[in-house]
Design goal:
alpha+beta; 12 helices; 56% helix; disordered C terminus
């Protein structure tokens, strides 16, 4: 698949997932906003109903008090009328109806005459009595209306003149208020816990529930208690819901799994694209590796083949010097071919998580000395020098001798490959004991590595480019092999480099002595 095709698919899928996530986020936001508005509307309705109930309760209370006072006053007046009628000896009074109001008084007396006289009068006045009774009833209803009107006016006057001047806690009962709030919130579908407080006109709390927090940052809802009071005397009821946020989001919680799954799909897609590009890069590197390997194998094979043909020439047999030269060429090219085969075998190691090693405890100084004695001739052939500054202390490490020898050899070989043409090669190998660790530093004065490449040089097939072509032939496996071996030995390796100055590779391995010594840190010479 072409790289441009992968990028096109990646962009389309990224836009699709991003749009889907955006739609889901906006949907959840709108749902939360709508639920907040519904919640606020339900709370406002409940608080308005509670405020109205408190006003009605106060009106009923004053009305009951006023009726009780009027009943007492009427009772005293009726008692006085009865006493006065008893003192009236010239008339026989069977019943007295007395009705008093604040607007006036109504008295209807029906004097019952002796039986014989009443019988005669009733027959004569039956027609006029019906009309009189109807008028009397109208008059009674009128006086009742005036009474009720006067009673209500008196209650209103008491509320306006008396109630508003009383402390708020004398006008309402907090227990009743709590019950009203619970009932109204339940009627509006709000069954979550709430806290409330009553504030006086100076914005001071006069009553609050036990868990009310005035510093709560959540949304608080307020309403004026007895809103008909003057502005300077109005008290406020403040309510807030500690679990409101959970209540709101619980109603839209079904949207969160969908959002989470979409986000997981987006992350998986990004990871897949990343792996796809990485795999494509590895494929390209492997193709380069195969091309390089073919070239590297072709050269020694051609040389060996040519030398073998020359050995068949009879003139070669007659010249011992030519025979030795051809034998040397065949031997060198065979070693070169074997080295390339080892590189291919090294690559196969990376397919396994753990390298099979035969660990033994060795003195790192002894091992490095052996490598340097073999490598010294190769360095001198390039006109370079190699110096060793090894710690005098015992520096035993547990390593696989063959693999660790290859590690040192690869680092030294890299220094030769990337030496500067105009500067004689200088190699410095140092060891030191630092606490319970052994530190090995290999320093060169080669072309160096840019800082942005230092983190990548230990990756498989990675080679620092010097333009469109690589000046040094190779597979990009040497440093990856070094890193893997050191890591499997429970050590660390890092590189320090400056362009056109040189590079230093620092290896740290666990010390296997019975004790660890702390010596001063050495300074890498430039």
């Amino acid at each position: 698949m072409k790289k441009s095709t992968i990028w096109l698919l990646a962009i389309i899928m990224a836009l699709t997932f991003s749009s889907l996530l955006y739609i889901q986020i906006k949907y959840i936001e709108n749902m939360v906003k709508m639920r907040n508005e519904q919640f606020s509307e339900a709370v406002k309705r409940s608080l308005y109903a509670v405020s109205s109930q408190l006003e009605q309760d106060e009106t009923k209370r004053y009305l009951a008090e006023d009726i009780e006072e009027n009943q007492k006053r009427l009772l005293s007046i009726e008692v006085g009328n009865v006493s006065a009628s008893k003192q009236w000896s010239g008339t026989s009074l069977d019943a007295t109806i007395s009705f008093n109001t604040q607007a006036g008084s109504f008295n209807a007396q029906d004097h019952i005459l002796p039986f014989s006289k009443k019988s005669t009068a009733s027959n004569a006045n039956r027609g006029s009595s019906i009309t009189s009774t109807y008028r009397d009833m109208q008059e009674i209803l009128k006086n009742q209306y005036l009474y009720q009107k006067g009673l209500l006016e008196n209650v209103i006057l008491n509320i306006l003149s008396t109630a508003r001047n009383r402390p708020i806690l004398e006008r309402i009962d907090t227990g009743t208020l709590t019950n009203y709030l619970k009932a109204e919130f339940k009627n509006n579908g709000l069954t979550i816990p709430f806290q409330f407080a009553i504030y006086d006109p100076k914005n001071k709390i006069v009553y609050a529930t036990s868990e009310y927090n005035p510093k709560e940052r959540g949304t608080k809802y307020s309403i004026n208690l007895f809103p008909n009071d003057p502005m300077k005397r109005q008290n406020q009821l403040m309510v807030y819901f500690p679990t409101k946020k959970d209540y709101i989001y619980s109603s839209v919680q079904f949207g969160f799994p969908s959002f989470s799954f979409t986000l997981i799909l987006l992350i998986t897609f990004i990871f897949t694209i990343f792996k796809l590009f990485r795999q494509k890069k590895l494929t390209e590197m492997k193709n380069d590796f195969i091309n390089n390997m073919t070239h590297e194998f072709k050269t020694p094979i051609s040389t060996i083949s040519l030398a073998a043909q020359m050995l068949k020439d009879s003139s070669v047999e007659k010249s011992p010097e030519m025979f030795r030269h051809i034998s040397t060429v065949i031997n060198d090219e065979t070693k070169r071919l074997r080295f390339q085969v080892e590189k291919v075998l090294q690559m196969s190691m990376f397919e396994h998580q753990k390298t099979m090693m035969k660990l033994t405890v060795l003195d790192v100084n002894t091992l490095i000395t052996e490598v340097l004695s073999t490598f010294k001739l190769k360095v001198e052939r390039f006109g370079g020098t190699i110096e060793a500054d090894l710690t005098p202390d015992d520096a035993c490490v547990e390593v696989d001798k063959m693999h660790f020898t290859n590690v040192i050899f690869n680092l030294l070989d890299n220094a030769i490959k990337y030496a500067r043409e105009d500067v004689p090669l200088q190699l410095h190998v140092r060891t030191r004991v630092d606490g319970n660790k052994v530190v090995v530093a290999i320093q060169d004065n080669g072309i160096g590595i840019k800082k942005e490449y230092l983190k990548k040089i230990f990756e498989r097939f990675y080679r620092v480019s010097t333009g469109n072509v690589h000046n040094v032939k190779g597979f990009g496996l040497g440093l990856a092999y070094v890193h893997k071996i050191v890591t499997d030995l429970k050590g660390t390796i890092r590189a320090e480099s400056e362009l056109n100055i040189g590079t230093t590779f620092i290896i740290t391995l666990p010390l296997k002595n019975d004790y660890g010594r702390k010596i001063e840190n050495f300074t890498v010479r430039r």
